[in-house]
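ok so i was messing around last nite and threw this chain in just to see what happens. nothing serious, just curious
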Amino acid sequence: MDGNVHIRAKGSDRSPPAPARLAAPASDPYLRHGILLHILIYRGGEPARAAVIAARVLSPTEHRVTDDLEPPRRFAGHDDAPDVRPKHARDIEPLARRSRMQAYELTIDAKVKPTPFTIVSADDFHVQIGRSIDPHVVLEQPTVSLYCLDHAKARALFVDTPPAVDLLQAPFYFIAQYEAAQRLIAVPYATLHVLAREVQLDPQHIILFYSTGRCGSTLVSHVLNQIPTVVSFSEPDVFTQLVQLRTAGQSNAAEVTALLYASLMIMAANARQRGFQYWAFKFRSYVLSVSDLLYQAVPAAKLLFLYRNALTWARSFSRAFGSADAELEDRLVKDGFRYLIPSVDIYLRTHTQTITWLEYLAHMWVSTMQDSRWLQQQDAALACARFEDLHVAPQAVIPALLAHCGLPMPDPARLAPVLAEDSQAGTVGAQDRAAPVRRLTDAELAELDRLIRQYDPTLAPDTILARTVHPEYATK
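result:
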């Protein structure tokens, strides 16, 4: 097996996709007047990027229906230019745009998700269609949060949870959403993109938080939530679902980028109306495989990456989520986990023999390290930290990570209990788990070491990345 080829193949589409054209008749006045060019020129900064991408992935009809009353955009630096449209056009525009956007309730008949850690899906619920509602509820109502995509029907699904449920305190946001959901709200993609384009916020206040998993990232997310101006979403799984769509070939890079952008904007906007001024997204480890698209969508965002020595990471991961080799295929194929790591999907498509648990672990760890190095090569605003340093010197590492994001330390009285507790207590990842799912032997760890070096000769289990915070440096 050529490990280098299989692992690195996931980066084969790193280059930005070639601009796509909307297929519309030449007589279409909307496209004839060059609205795409207008969006590109007049919408400077982050909204421009998403607006153009969203236009590429919507059908001409969808795009006209949502945006044909949008006013002409002004050149950057000329916001004082007069609005030359007739007054009646200016007056009816907000009402017209709202009336053409759609959203509707879905009544939950049953919750049928097979296991808590299965990737979120529209199939997690049995529902019935309810009444039509104003889609702005997903921006404005604090109890409404983005849960997943129903890609087959081109819509996003939001859950509405009781006011007493604080999703931010849960170790796993997506599990708490599912358990507390009282109803769903369906928003078509066309409406979702329009809502996202309404959001104006500072992209440097967005924090994209990547990790290998099992490295203290949940702890750091809880620390972020102790700062009054910060909200940290601990594993919103819609982003993991977008990894699946991209790897499985069910969507293209342009559409995935637009959906990533829309998800970020809508979640941040909903949190902002609750008073939060910084928005951190702590992802599952798999989301690193779309970090290139997230970087295209919000290049000014602050990035964090937590990682861990591959051997101790593998021992911890196997203890909580391990699998026998004979059972791994079901997880990968039936549950769709093959699409969360592109190199694993390539392996399964190009080999007749099944992948082993150790090979799966090697692909998983190497791919996250390679993707983080790719971000460094783009000169992204990325700060790294190791579990080993965070574990022995949290009071040195945490301030350095927060300073990178322009944030202060939390109040000591709020921070102390967070550092003292198991951040995943009560879950399968808890430190006090009685019986490991799988315990790796010394021989298996030695084989894992060999596989990692085979898959990428530039990596070793104890590799330390550039820009990694070291306690001795952080305290100076």
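not much to say yet. Residues 58 and 190 are 7 Å apart (CA to CA).
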